[in-house]
Amino acid sequence: MSKPLMAKATAVWLVDNTTISFKQIADFVGMHELEIQGIADGDVAAGVKGFDPIANNQLTQEDIDKAEKDPLHKLKLKYNAAAVGEEKRRGPRYTPLSKRQDRPNAILWLVKFHPELADAQIAKLVGTTKPTIQTIRERTHWNIANMQPIDPVALGLCKQTELDAAVQKAAAKKAKEGQAIDDDERRKLLSTEQSLESDAEPRMPTAIEGLETFSLGGADTAGEEEKEKEYDAESFFNLPDDDGDDDEDDDKA
User: Fold this and answer.
1) Which one, of 7, 14, 20, 25, lies nearest residue 70 by Cα?
2) How far apart, in Å, are the Cα atoms of 60 and each of 128, 146, 225?
3) For residues 185 and 175, is the Cβ–Cβ distance under 8 A?
4) Which of 42, 81, 164, 186 has a CA between 20 and 30 Å from the CA of residue 17?
């Protein structure tokens, strides 16, 4: 069911100007019944000006009269031909003012950890423009020195499912083009759930790289055995005979 424009302001107007039940108003504007009760008590939507749904072509007076007489009657949003297809409007995502300063950090994170994403995908995820993305890719952004890569999901700029869908689409495009990718790039193309479920691959520690061909058996063992035979313990204590020296000492005496 479609919801009215300015739902909370419409609910304020209905609470102030009609005797419709809280349940009927909640069902019409898409809010909880307790929120409508809070509006009536003055605890919710304080300072919000009511939005007349009749004057704005969203409800008819006849429909409101029926709802006031019958607590089970459901209000129906008036058909507005001008609003057809409004939900499918294309363009960059709207970003609240409080989060717009975090967009460059989110773009830097996407460019760094998901370079396979196209500029159009990044623009759709965080609600930015292609020139801004290009300046961050080329590191010519005016504030690049103070920027830090931050996950856009953690910033609330997009949902994890949306990011995973964009990554999967980029992965399918690369696979279709037949480009060869290494293990690190393959992990970037996986979604969060897939990367967490995948088994860790054994890797050679960087401290011993280059010693893959080193072996402790075979020829090295044979060489050690020959060394042991050539230099045994007795050979180190096999001192020369001192008979000749003793004879010379006797002659001198």
Assistant:
1) 20
2) 40, 55, 103
3) no
4) 81
And the tokens for 151?
Answer: 């996950």
Q: Which tokens in the block code for residue 133?
A: 């993305």
Listed residue (91, 111, 92) closest to 157, CA to CA = 92
What dihedral angle (degrees, nearest 10) is formed by the CA atoms of 73, 77, 79, 85?
Answer: -140
What is the residue whose two structure tokens read 């096999």? 238
What single-letter DSSP state applies at residue 104? H
Residues lower than pLDDT 50 in the chain: 83, 86-87, 219, 253
CB atoms within 10 A of CB 174: 16
**Domain ranges across the chain:** 7-83, 90-197
The C-alpha angle with vertex 199 and arms to 197 and 200, in degrees rounded to 5, equals: 125
pLDDT of amino acid 148: 93
